Amino acid sequence: MRSSTGTGTVPRERGRVTGGVGDSARRPDGAPKVDGSFAFSSDLWADDMLWGRTLRSPHPSARIRSVDVERARRIDGVVAVVTADDVPGSPCFGLEHRDQPVFAHDVVRFHGEPVAAVAAVHPEIAARACEAIEVDYAELDPLLDPEAAIDADPIHPDGNVVRHLRIRHGDVDAGGDVTVEGTYELGMQDQAFMGPESGLAIPDDAGGVDLYISTQWLHVDRDQVAACLGLPTEQVRLTLSGVGGAFGAREDVSLQVHVCLLALRTGRPVKMLYSREESFLGHVHRHPGRLWYRHHATADGDLVKVEARIVLDGGAYASSSSAVIANASCFAAGPYRMPNATVDGYVVRTNNPPCGAMRGFGAVQACFGYEAQMDKLAAALGVDPVELRLRNALAPGDSLITGQVIRGTAPVREVIEAARAHPLPPDPDGRPEVLLPGGTGLTASRGDVRRGVGFAVGFKNVAYSEGFDDYATASVRLEEGVDGEPVATVHSAAAEVGQGLVTLAQQVVRTELGVERVILRPADTSIGSAGSSSASRQAWMTGGAVQAACNAVKETLLRRVAGAHGVDVEGARRQLLVVRDGWVTHVEGDLRLSLVEALDGRPVEQVSVYRHAPTTPLDPDGQGDAHVAFVFAAHRAVVDVDQELGLIRVLQVATGQDVGRALNPVQVTGQIEGGIAQGVGLAVMEEVVMDDGRVRNASFVDYLIPTALDMPEVAATLVEQPEPGAPFGAKGVGEPPTISSTAAVVAAVRDATGLELRRVPIRPEHIALAAGSGADGT
Amino acid sequence: MIPAPFEYVRVGSVDEAVDALSEHGEEATLLAGGHSLLPLMRLRLAVPEVLVDLGRVDELRGVRDAGDHLAVGAMTTHHQVMSDPLVREHCGVLAEVTGEVGDPQVRHRGTIGGACAHGDAAGDHPACLLALDATMVARDPGGTREITAADFFTGIFETALAPDEVLTEVHLPKLDGSWGFDYQKFQRVKQAWAIVGACALVRREDGRIGEARVGLTNLGSVPVRATGTERLLAGAAAEPDALREAAAQAAEGTQPPTDSNARPDYRRHLARVLTLRALQNSLAS
């Protein structure tokens, strides 16, 4: 069951054109993805192409004594073997800090770190060539404990502490009548996208290269590739290929430099396509974390102070760790009024796999901690946990623990009440046995099952923060089509990663120009950057850029019409000439031209750059207006637990989500369902299992993700309060579903079992072996 | 990945298969469905030089009534076993267990002989056949011999079959209506291997338990019987307390593996819980 109820009134400017903003317009790539004709980057092909393959370190920490590639080079069919010595430009790349070697040179710092790459005429030959490369490693003791890493000898010249973010807010000595304390842990989640990393690099005749690649941010890839290849950026051109999911894992460079280097070295097109195992080793994961919290409240239930120490394991290289710990720290108090705060967030280097962006980006880790604390506090106060949240809910005009006052919308009460209002699912007695824990395996019977209900609320920022110059570029071209109808073409470098940006771009143009037919040019670097498809930012940023380009097109067109038809558009009179419903009309006169007539055979094209309102860096006390806007969601989870086996069935997740405005309600609902799937996954099954620094489950046989059989019913309410300053009033919708859904599921399992459950994912033995033993089920 | 090169031999009879194995010795492997073998070959964990395909050996297919037992041809597919009227009537537990193997595609290609000869203690068949006291029939150039299930599974992916021996039939004792049965398979996602499984067979006798047999899946390098449980139940009252007390002994003497799915203590715990549930369901069935 789903419902979409607005709590604000939103004017919907509808013309005769359908599929505009607010409609559930169909995805242009929907049917091809369903019928199998959509070309993913793994389908890329070029005549005479070679296959690239990466040799990776089997050790989490080792000194490289020597690398001997001679035997590999001599294999028939091998065209090139490259190592660190062959990287012509910067030896390192990185999203925020250029600290990660293209190929390990003297040391390897994580299991799976690239050491060499091969190009061969067949992928199997490339694989055998990698096996023939002789690397002499001297194994070192890996540094694996993030807490110990803070003071340990550095494993990298830049040191182990990537960032320590300190927040001091209000009266740090304040105390309350009631305190609760807890330590919480999260394992390493993987983005687990379906389409493994793949790309095709084609060298040109002038020393440059074209790269076709699935990524989240073409320009930042281009800049890193160009720097490592020692080429000017104009000689490295990137085009987006079909992306099979991203969720943050494609924000960092994986094979981009390797495949381009091999193409330039061989003078032939080179394709790389990771296996599932290599994909697990070759991209960043969600930061595992350990969070200590102490909350202080009055006897009446008003929050007084939060103390927190958050340690995230960034793995061997920095990736986006600085921004992740910023989110975890800035949002450490949750969406609640918290007058006083002492937060220390650390993100450190270890010899574990590098961690970076994943849906929710730091906010997920913090939410798991503070929401467990809110439940503990409610229990200590003897009040209903939802009422405690409502009592302390943030509202517009309140300030965060960073001192930032919320100027935009903050419908925290509304999302909580919307989640709570959904009917609960029926009792276990009324359900088919296949819906019990264990599902079709039928290991549970009704008598074995206990039900629990849990609640959680979360929030995070939209778009980039801390003074980053965040912008998006788009161009719109309006012209007469071959059939005599107007057609608009949108060009942007924004990456469609499955979220539906391509639909939104079409919807914006339809609404702004009244043109039914909107063509999307492939995303590439021949236009300016659109920024990353991350941080729930593209609907706002590229939506804003497309809207601005449409307005510029309109302006150009109207001035052309004014000139051609002698209409006075000086000063305020300009407002009298409008484009509406696909017509150019003069409000006072009888001028009425179709768009095609107005174009008069000459296309109009405009490029616009959109920026959101500026943000500022945080000061030494972690204070500042670092974020442009905030988005909120509440989740209520209902679970059945077979306590003897430790099996959990998540029956239902009900949610209220702050969306600003739903630009495409079906797509928003899809984002909510998908985000909840990942939240449920982190709660009960998803973890990259590490064993002494080595990844033990680099496959979908052993890394479990929810399937259709595991997915709960989702009951969603879209809370619509248009955000001032955001194009169309829309906030991003991709991340909020993952932030508090995990915490809600765990709260429900605690409710069913009475166990404390301080760690996710909950493993069956945490419940089964704790039950009746008096243990706390960590 | 692509398997290493191999020679492919298709045989039309058991005799031809035995000849092929005799000729090539340990370099040869039988192909009997291939749902376990081919993935291993693609990963190059199995590198047979000669693959002897039993797919066209019709004499190995089908279920026959052999008086006091059923004889199931080694190349009978899981789907055929599950839907065979004789199996369903006389040995329903095998139909139930077979229904838990893989997915429909696997069950239409995979065979009972292949599943046994693969010798995987995490597979569903071995524990069931052990609990049934089934007998395996094998042929080599010298003739035919019978091997009890207890002697057949000898180690991790190892069986008592000699390199030149072909598993031809599985003999299943017929169970009359006094027997109840149940298979409990614990897996975290559907269509995965059992993390632990418990297969129970219980013979009811005047309100008491005449005999109980419990086979455990994935609790060691070979399938094992829960002998402590069986001993306590022989002649016991069919009462909840007796079942609970007996099931508590299910993991005695086992040495469960550790992997990313479960540690040994949790596997032992699962064995106890699943054995109890399987016994309860057996008595109710």
Description:
- The complex is a heterodimer of chains A (778) and B (285).
- In chain A, 24% of the residues lie in helices and 25% in strands.
- In chain A, strand 22 and strand 23 (583-586) form a beta hairpin.
- Chain A is an alpha+beta fold.
- Chain B has 285 residues and is of the alpha+beta class.
- Chain B folds into 3 domains: 7-50, Uridine Diphospho-n-acetylenolpyruvylglucosamine Reductase, domain 2 (2-Layer Sandwich); 63-172, Uridine Diphospho-n-acetylenolpyruvylglucosamine Reductase, domain 3; 179-284, Enolase-like, domain 1.
- Chain B has a 5-stranded antiparallel beta sheet. A 4-stranded antiparallel beta sheet of chain B has the order 11-12-13-14.
- The chains are: A alpha+beta (778), B alpha+beta (285).
- Chains A and B meet through helix 18 of A and strand 11 and helix 12 of B.
Kindly estimate the percentage of residues of chain A that lie in beta strands according to DSSP. Answer: 25-35%
Q: What is the overall silhouette of chain A?
A: globular
Biggest beta-sheet profile of chain A:
7 strands, mixed
Question: How would you classify the quaternary structure?
Answer: heterodimer
Structural shape of chain B: globular
Which CATH class of the largest domain in chain B is shown?
A: Alpha Beta
Label the structural class of chain B.
alpha+beta
Mean pLDDT of chain A: 94
**pLDDT < 50 runs, ≥5 residues of chain B:** none
Number of domains of chain B: 3
Give the strand content of chain B.
Answer: 25-35%
Instruction: Compute the CA-based radius of gyration of chain B.
Output: 19 Å
State the order of secondary-structure elements of chain B, H for helix, E for strand: EHEHEEEHHHHHHEEHEEEEEEEHHH
List keywords for this structure.
heterodimer, A: 778 residues, alpha+beta, Aldehyde Oxidoreductase, domain 3, Aldehyde Oxidoreductase, domain 4, six-stranded mixed sheet, 18 helices, globular, disordered N terminus, B: 285 residues, Uridine Diphospho-n-acetylenolpyruvylglucosamine Reductase, domain 2, Enolase-like, domain 1, five-stranded antiparallel sheet, 14 strands
